[in-house]
Design goal:
mainly alpha, three-stranded antiparallel sheet, two-stranded antiparallel ribbon, 14 helices
Length: about 375
């Protein structure tokens, strides 16, 4: 069920419906950009409150991503308390799984005798809590307690019409798919961006100089990405270097085939190791070095990006890529525009990622000092 793991005609219809209805309520349009800019304003006010005191950027970034996702799904903000609770569950979930899927994937029977150790109990609690939040909002929509239009209202109309494939359970799982896919991945990219700027003062200064010169104090928008050449190249390199989603997939082989000498039978589940792709020396010059310049040509313009697929590729690419790309760009640029980012007492936080089902930075603290912006 849902749209992540379903396939065939059922997947095609459900995905098309989901994308269409999200667009109808403003997803990928000017309205969405305004929502992101409002979230940016909230983030900047949050950072200002600390007046240069050390803070962890993760909570406010995750909360903002979750709230904007929830606005399109359920027509309202989810609330900081629930977001923080879910974040704790997601952290525990990440620790339980490594890149191979952990023991639960390799020894699925261990969930019966070692539910906590295997990670089964953690993922079950996470799904139950997410499901409970979604179910509460479905009930609020059925009672018409939420104003305006949103994805839930659109889907419930199909449920009430008894259209085949449209059930409250399917609605719940689509919401789960969207939240789990976008909850941490988007905020992790921004966190990696802030961490890299923090660890490399020369890069941070170069980013700020470009942002300040081009925007001249204006609030960033997605259309600025072509003008902020170095900043856009920097974010592309963040996607490549840190590879927030090391494995893209799943896909299903529609027929017997052979790849690189390996026989892949029909109906085999296939995962794409984009982490390996991004570190291949045949594709990248010095792949282990962080070099935004690799995305800028000799004339100083952005290169056409090849071999970087942060949101997947083809018919099954992430349906939320428009939101993720805009959110990452606008929020990162907005923070750099208004704040200088420093480490505490000249002690650099680790640049090594924590790699599980997704890649994230080790928890770090930074000082956000308001810039004297004229």
């Amino acid at each position: 069920m849902g749209i992540t793991f379903a396939d065939g005609n059922f997947w095609r219809e459900q995905r098309q419906f989901t994308v269409k209805q999200l667009r109808n309520v403003g997803f990928g349009k000017t309205k969405m950009e305004k929502e992101i800019q409002r979230e940016l304003s909230s983030i900047l006010k949050y950072l200002e409150k600390f007046n240069g005191e050390p803070i962890k950027p993760q909570p406010i970034l995750v909360t903002s991503v979750m709230n904007i996702l929830w606005t399109y799904i359920a027509g309202e903000r989810i609330g900081e308390e629930k977001v923080n609770f879910l974040l704790g569950l997601l952290k525990a979930r990440s620790k339980a799984f490594n890149i191979t899927g952990g023991f639960l994937n390799q020894l699925p029977w261990c969930r019966f005798i070692l539910p906590e150790w295997s990670g089964y109990a953690i993922i079950k609690r996470l799904n139950e809590q997410l499901s409970q939040i979604i179910e509460e909002n479905i009930e609020r929509h059925k009672k018409k307690l939420v104003e305006g239009t949103d994805f839930m209202y659109s889907f419930l109309e199909e449920v009430e019409a008894k259209k085949e494939g449209y059930t409250e359970e399917q609605l719940k799982i689509i919401c789960l798919d969207i939240i789990i896919a976008g909850f941490q991945t988007t905020s992790n990219v921004i966190e990696f961006g802030i961490l890299t700027a923090l660890r490399n003062k020369n890069i941070q200064q170069k980013l700020y100089d470009e942002i300040n010169q081009v925007l001249q104090g204006e609030t960033p928008s997605w259309s600025d990405n072509s003008r902020l050449v170095y900043t856009t190249a920097f974010l592309q390199e963040i996607h490549r270097y840190y590879t927030v989603v090391p494995l893209a997939g799943p896909r299903r082989a529609l027929e017997d085939t052979t790849i690189g000498g390996y026989f892949i039978p029909k109906d085999t589940t296939v995962l794409i190791a984009v982490g390996d792709l991004y570190s291949d020396p045949q594709l990248w010059d010095e792949p282990n070095e962080f070099k935004p310049e690799r995305f800028i040509d000799e004339s100083g313009a952005l290169k056409d990006v090849e071999n970087v697929y942060p949101f997947g590729l083809g018919r099954r690419k992430c349906p939320g890529d428009a939101l993720a790309k805009s959110f990452i760009f606008i929020v990162f640029v907005g923070i750099l525009q208004k704040f200088q980012i420093d480490c505490i007492e000249d002690v650099l936080p680790s640049g090594e990622p924590v790699i599980g089902l997704i890649s994230g930075p080790k928890p770090y603290t930074a000082v956000f000092t308001p810039r004297d912006v004229k």
